[in-house]
Amino acid sequence: MTKRALISVSDKTNIVEFAKGLEKHGFEIISTGGTFTYLKNNGVACISIEDVTHFPEILEGRVKTLHPKIHGGLLSKRGNELHNKHVAENNIEYIDLVCVNLYPFEATVKKEGVSEEEIIENIDIGGPSMLRSAAKNFNDVAVVTDIRDYDRILNELENGGITLATRRSLAIKVFNTTASYDAAIANYFNKADNLVPEKLTLSYILEDTLRYGENPHQKAYHYVQDNNESYALQNAVQLHGKEMSYNNIQDASAALDILAEFDEIACVAVKHMNPCGVAIGKDVFEAYSRAYEADPVSIFGGIVAVNGVVDKATAEKMHSIFLEIILAVDYEDEALEILTKKKNLRIYKLSEKNNNHEQQIKSVRGGILVQDFNSALAENYEVVTDKQPTKEQMTDLEFGLKIVKHVKSNAIVVVKNGQTLGIGAGQMNRVGSCKIALEQAGALAEGAVLASDAFFPMRDSVDLAAEYNIAAIVQPGGSIRDQESIDACNEKGVAMTFSKIRHFKH
User: Fold this and answer.
1) Alpha-carbon gap, residue 404 to 410, rounded angstroms
2) Closest residue by Cα to residue 165 from 142, 132, 146
3) How many CB atoms lie within 10 A of CB 227?
4) pLDDT at 1
5) Quick one: DSSP state of residue 323?
6) Smallest Cα–Cα separation from 309: which of 276, 340, 286, 283?
7) What is the pLDDT at residue 306?
């Protein structure tokens, strides 16, 4: 009995070779529209879909495979008496293999200046229908939607036939693929119409199976979205080093979140998802040197991200300590030669910054939380003390806010001349974070500024800052006891500015 394969693909990569391989193993090829023409022109003997259905392609190609002769051939259970009867009565021939990949909906959405009409025309109807029909009947039908599976199919045919285990695994892949495809469509319309859907559908692609999670006894996987988010790790190119771990990915992402705050040359050093040193400079060498000097102890074994080109001098300085990861816009050849001497150092070349930010998703017990990315900095700056901050201090206060919003709350950052001097993170009370940041800064805190992610519930943080001769403070304000902090600043001769926006990061 002749076997039949139906081929209808948007992406025609390797399809001729696959079709000819199927022919070699006794398959008769049915095909549609552009695929039919392409295969015929490349020497594949094809039957057009119209010759099977005896019904023309209509509605500009919207209807061509939605026909009982197609879906009957896919869905009929071989060996089932009733199904056999219906197949015979309706002159339906079995289809034993389906090869379909879908209209490029996601790629179309990303196109510059694309119209919604074009987007809608790239919503595939017949393709998912055939895939789902074939997948449902995997006991009898093989279904292929991934180009990478072509060789797998041909190899099994070479060895006697496509196994049930393979047909089942391919069917599962199909259901995941069609679910992801529908999720992309739903999410496009949700975003276009600014909707909060009652049922949220998310789609991620497996990027890597990791050695383990946060700890060796935890399994872990890295999934990514097919998007154009600024500095997205999946768009970076690894130039050297071993694979990323679960914790590496988290730390790198945290570093890139901070780096995205800056247009001027900046360097961010991160340890355990908190910054340990951040600085700007006239060039990469100066920015890295200042970030290193901010906390030369914590940067050891950390992650460094810079939004410029790493030169030889910077590479030599980086090479002198143990770093896990370096992320940069690019590297001079001499710099790479130095850095790659360390076999395990992970070196990444970043994609371009574009200021695109996807929603943030966090798992909680029994569900997820979804929120917008925190792209704000300040609503406006209101000086609330007698003493006014200088122009230079206001620049540093803004720099401090760019950092503090990425530090685990309660968060305090001490800054001077575009360089962090002390960072207090994740304490259960604000004065605890103040103590950590100020003690780290030490004598360098004199004349520096202090940024807080949230308001001061009492004056104790101000009093402590004054002991270290902090010159200016920025905080959102909004406490019923704001006046106590303002009075404390006036007593101590410290300038205080309200930013009017809280930056909790739990």
Assistant:
1) 9
2) 142
3) 14
4) 61
5) E
6) 283
7) 98
Residues near 204 by beta carbon (within 8 Å), at least 6 away in sequence:
223, 224, 225
106 contacts 184 by C-beta, under 8 angstroms: yes
> Which residues are catalytically annotated?
136, 272
User: Are the CB atoms for 287 and 328 separated by under 8 Å?
Assistant: no
**Token code pair at residue 82:** 């009733």
CATH, range 382-498: 3.40.140.20
Beta-carbon count within 10 A of 237 CB: 9
Domain segments of the chain as ranges:
3-192, 231-349, 382-498
Domains 3-192 and 231-349 share a fold: no
CB 398 within 8 A of CB 377: yes
SS3 state of residue 99: strand
Q: For residue 278, give the H/E element and its range.
A: strand 274-280
Q: How many residues does the chain have?
A: 506
Which CATH number is 231-349 given? 3.40.140.20
CATH superfamily of 3-192: Methylglyoxal synthase-like domain (3.40.50.1380)
Residues of the chain with pLDDT under 70: 1
pLDDT of residue 343: 94
Burial class (CB in 10 A: 0-12, 13-18, 19+), 443: exposed
| Token pair listed for 312 | 């030889």
- Give the residue among 435, 436, 430, 438 at the shortest CA–CA distance from 476: 430
The pLDDT tens digits of the residues spanning 405-452 come to 999 999 999 999 999 999 999 999 999 999 999 999 999 999 999 999
Q: What is the pLDDT at residue 202?
A: 87
Buried b (16+ CB within 10 A) or exposed e, 290-320: bbbebbeebbeebbbbbbbbbbbbbbeebbe
Query: Could you tell me the pTM of the whole model?
Result: 0.86
